[in-house]
């Protein structure tokens, strides 16, 4: 555990770090020695729990309310992180939402909200983070294996947003390469979080491994991509789903 490091590689920001995958990523990055800022939108209690857990292990953490649908809030979150912990070395763009609906009933506001957070918010977070990131930094997005193959009726818009993320990451790798900033996209299959809480039995039954994944399993891959050894990998989408899309 590195608790007092003022290393320029120290600062990490997790967009959507209060619950589920993002919370596991925040805790894992703290264990890797990063000072971790995490954003949330609706659950300050959960964000505070993550900060307290990191601090209890001797790490440094900061919770920031910032709706990923709000460009100003995203820029402010990046600024607050840099002010507190120094220039960013790692940004994990995890905030996202799932809403499913049959085509003929799909509400326009749901479409707009998913595009705003899952696509527009991802671009804005990458843009803002890159502007305050040191050369040689790391950006990781959380997409979904639905970008490869969904197969769940009503999930078309969600799958579309995650395909957009994979394409964005692939192409932005070229923009960021001259600064040795890597950007990669982790594509989980079903993971046990609030998003899947009501579907766990069905999802496990459909899985080749007959189980869903754990947030910590996603966090482990993020930690690798955020680490020194992953400096030659960029633009990649890595699927982590127990064989769901095979
Ligand atoms: N769980 C899965 O099976 C699965 C599979 C593949 C991909 N994913 C992706 O993984 C990511 C995390 O999913 P999860 O299952 O961990 O979800 P979750 O348990 O619902 O947690 C979502 C997190 O994102 C935050 N968030 C949501 N909307 C936000 C917004 N507009 N602005 C800022 N933060 C926002 C939430 O903050 P609050 O706590 O404040 O609400 C929370 O910290 C998503 O992008 C999701 O699409 C999940």
Given as residue ranges, the uncertain stretches (5+ residues, pLDDT < 50) are 1-7
Number of strands: 7
Helix and strand composition category: alpha/beta
Strand order of the largest sheet: 3-2-1-4-5-6-7
Bound molecules: NADP nicotinamide-adenine-dinucleotide phosphate
Number of domains: 1
Fraction of residues in helix: 40-55%
The N- to C-terminal Cα distance equals 38 Å
Question: How confident is the prediction overall: mean pLDDT?
Answer: 96
Tell me, what's the shape? globular
CATH class: Alpha Beta
Instruction: Tell me the number of helical segments per DSSP (H or I, 4 or more residues long).
Output: 7
Roughly how many Å is the radius of gyration?
17 Å
CATH topology (fold) name:
Rossmann fold
SSE topology string: EHEHEHEHEHEHHE
Describe the main β-sheet briefly.
7 strands, parallel
CATH superfamily: NAD(P)-binding Rossmann-like Domain
CATH architecture: 3-Layer(aba) Sandwich
Approximately how much beta-strand content do the residues carry?
A: 15-25%
Tell me the layout of helices and strands.
Layout: E1 11-15, H1 20-31, E2 35-40, H2 44-56, E3 61-65, H3 71-85, E4 88-93, H4 108-131, E5 133-142, H5 156-176, E6 182-188, H6 200-206, H7 215-226, E7 237-240
Parallel strand pairs: 1-2, 1-4, 2-3, 4-5, 5-6, 6-7
């Amino acid at each position: 555990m590195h608790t007092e490091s003022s290393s320029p590689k120290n600062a990490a920001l997790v967009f959507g770090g209060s619950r589920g995958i993002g919370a596991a990523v925040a805790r894992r990055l703290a264990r890797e020695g990063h000072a971790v800022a995490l954003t949330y939108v609706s659950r300050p209690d959960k964000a505070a729990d993550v900060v307290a857990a990191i601090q209890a292990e001797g790490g440094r953490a900061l919770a920031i309310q910032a709706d990923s649908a709000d460009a100003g809030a995203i820029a402010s979150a990046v600024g607050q992180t840099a002010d507190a912990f120094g220039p960013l070395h790692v940004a994990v763009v995890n905030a996202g939402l799932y809403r499913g609906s049959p085509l003929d009933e799909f509400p326009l506001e749901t479409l707009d909200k998913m595009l705003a957070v899952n696509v527009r918010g991802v671009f804005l977070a990458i843009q803002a983070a890159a502007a305050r990131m040191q050369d040689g930094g790391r950006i990781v997005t959380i997409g979904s294996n639905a970008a490869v193959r969904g197969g769940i009726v009503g999930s078309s818009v969600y799958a579309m947003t995650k395909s957009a993320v994979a394409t964005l990451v692939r192409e932005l790798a070229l923009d960021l390469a001259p600064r040795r900033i890597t950007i990669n996209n982790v594509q989980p299959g079903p993971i046990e979080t609030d998003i899947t809480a009501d579907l766990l039995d069905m999802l496990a039954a459909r899985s080749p491994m007959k189980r869903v994944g754990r947030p910590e399993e996603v966090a482990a891959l993020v930690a690798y991509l955020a680490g020194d050894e992953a400096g030659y990998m960029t633009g990649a989408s890595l699927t982590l789903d127990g064989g769901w899309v095979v």
